[in-house]
Design a protein that fits this description.
Helix content: 10-25%
Order of helices and strands: HEEEEEEEEEEEEEEEEEEEHHEHEEHEHH
Number of helices: 7
Number of strands: 23
Strand content: 25-35%
Structural class: alpha+beta
Strand order of the largest sheet: 2-10-9-5-6
C-alpha cells in the first residue's frame, strides 16, 4: 500500500509540474519590419497559452499601441478601432491555431508603432466575458517606413550566345505576401517566365521571376528591363544590356575568309597571266632590232628609181660587160664638179675623145655598206 500511495503522489506531482511548466503565455513577433508607404505590410505573429485547445470562436485577438492598450489598431468589433486604422487592418491566420499575424493596408507614414498583440479567452461561445486576458507588451513590432519601393535585383550572364538558351533572374524583396509585387519583363516575345515566391526570413519575402529565351542576332545590344509593380500603384525597375555572340559555327569568320581567299586567288591568277603576257612581249621586242638599227637601215635605203641598171650601159668594153647585170645607187643631184666624164679628167683640157664612151666619175662619199654595191662601178671607172 505504501508503494501504491507513493506512486500516486508522484503522478500527481508530475502532472502539477507539467501544468506549471505549460502555464506560461508566449508570443513570437518580429521586432522590426520594413513597410512601404501607401502599400501594405504583414506583421508575423504566433502565440501559445496554457489552456486546452480552444476554437477560434472562443478567442479574441487585439492589436494596440504599446503605451496605451485602449488605442486599438485591430479589434473584432470595428467600432473599438481607431478611426485612422478602420478598414485597414485584419487578422490573417486562425487564432485557434496560434496565428495572430496582422495585415495593414494603405500604410501611412505615421503607422510606425510599436504595436503589441493581446489575447482574451471567453468562457463559452455565448459568454462575452473574458476572464483570461494577456497582453504581450514585451514583444511588440516597430515599423520602418520606406518612402520608395526597393529596386529589383537582376542576375544574368554577361554574354549570350545565338541559338542557345539564355536565363535571367529578376528578384525583389517585400513585406506584404498577401499582395506580393508582380514582376514584368520588357521582352514581349518571351513566353517562358516562371514566378517563385519564398520567405527569406520572418517578416521578409522575395519574389523571383525567371526569364528563359533563345536569343537571336537581333537581340544584340538590346536593353532588357525588369519592373516590379507593388500594391498601391508603386513601381521600380532595373535593366541590363544584352550582348549576343554569334553561334560557335564561326560562319561569320569562315564566309568572309573564303570570299577573301577567292578574290586573292583570282587577282593572283590575273597578275600571273599579265606578267607572262608582258614577258613574252618583252622577249619579242628583244628579238627585233633596236630602234637605232632600224633608223640606220632606213637611212641607207634609196628609192628604186635612183638605182642605175648596168645592163643598159653600152657593152663596148670589157669592164662594162663585167659589170653588167649589177645595180648601183645613183647620186642625188650630182654637182657638175662631181659628175664629170672619166676621160675628161685624164685628157688634156679641151680635148675629148668623142669615140670613147663617157663614164661618170662619182666622188660621193659612201658608207661601208654601200661600198660593196659600187665596187664594180669603181673598177669600171678606173679602167
Amino acid at each position: 500500500m505504501n508503494i501504491e500511495r507513493r506512486l500516486t503522489v508522484f503522478s500527481v506531482l508530475l502532472a502539477a509540474c507539467r501544468a506549471a511548466s505549460g502555464g506560461e503565455w508566449k508570443a513570437s513577433v518580429v521586432k522590426s519590419v520594413d513597410a512601404l508607404v501607401a502599400s501594405c505590410v504583414v506583421l508575423p505573429c504566433s502565440f501559445s497559452h496554457p489552456k486546452e485547445q480552444l476554437p477560434t470562436s472562443r478567442l479574441r485577438g487585439i492589436w494596440h499601441y504599446e503605451a496605451q492598450k485602449d488605442q486599438r489598431i485591430y479589434h473584432q468589433d470595428n467600432t473599438n478601432v481607431l478611426a485612422s486604422f478602420r478598414d485597414r487592418t485584419r487578422l490573417l491566420g486562425h487564432l485557434g491555431q496560434g496565428d495572430c499575424s496582422l495585415e495593414i493596408t494603405k500604410v501611412k507614414d505615421y503607422d510606425n508603432g510599436p504595436f503589441c498583440f493581446r489575447i482574451e479567452l471567453a468562457r463559452t461561445e455565448g459568454d462575452a466575458s473574458t476572464p483570461d486576458k494577456f497582453s504581450f507588451v514585451e514583444n511588440c513590432v516597430k515599423l520602418k517606413m520606406l518612402p520608395d519601393p526597393p529596386k529589383p535585383m537582376l542576375i544574368h550572364a554577361n554574354k549570350a550566345f545565338e541559338g542557345r538558351l539564355y536565363t535571367a533572374i529578376c528578384s525583389v524583396t517585400h513585406t506584404c505576401p498577401t499582395h506580393a509585387p508582380s514582376l514584368t519583363w520588357s521582352k514581349e516575345d518571351s513566353h517562358d517566365v516562371t514566378t517563385v515566391i519564398r520567405e527569406i526570413h520572418a517578416g521578409s519575402w522575395e519574389v523571383q521571376s525567371i526569364l528563359a529565351f533563345v536569343p537571336q542576332a537581333t537581340d544584340d545590344h538590346r536593353d532588357i528591363t525588369c519592373t516590379a509593380n507593388f500594391y498601391g500603384r508603386m513601381s521600380s525597375s532595373d535593366n541590363f544590356t544584352l550582348f549576343v555572340k554569334r553561334s560557335e559555327n564561326h560562319h561569320h569568320i569562315i564566309i568572309p575568309t573564303v570570299v577573301a581567299l577567292v578574290i586573292a586567288v583570282l587577282f593572283g591568277g590575273l597578275c600571273i597571266v599579265m606578267v607572262k603576257k608582258y614577258k613574252r612581249r618583252i622577249a619579242e621586242l628583244q628579238g627585233q632590232p633596236s630602234w637605232r638599227n632600224r633608223l640606220s637601215r632606213l637611212s641607207r635605203r634609196r628609192p628604186r628609181e635612183n638605182m642605175v641598171d648596168l645592163n643598159h650601159l653600152p657593152s663596148t668594153s670589157t669592164a662594162t660587160s663585167s659589170a653588167a647585170g649589177q645595180k648601183f645607187w645613183k647620186t642625188h643631184r650630182p654637182t657638175p664638179k662631181m659628175c664629170q666624164p672619166a676621160e675628161a679628167l685624164s685628157a688634156p683640157h679641151g680635148k675629148e675623145n668623142k669615140n670613147q664612151p663617157k663614164v661618170w666619175n662619182y666622188k660621193q662619199d659612201v658608207s661601208d655598206d654601200d661600198y660593196e654595191n659600187t665596187a664594180d662601178l669603181n673598177v669600171y671607172r678606173n679602167r
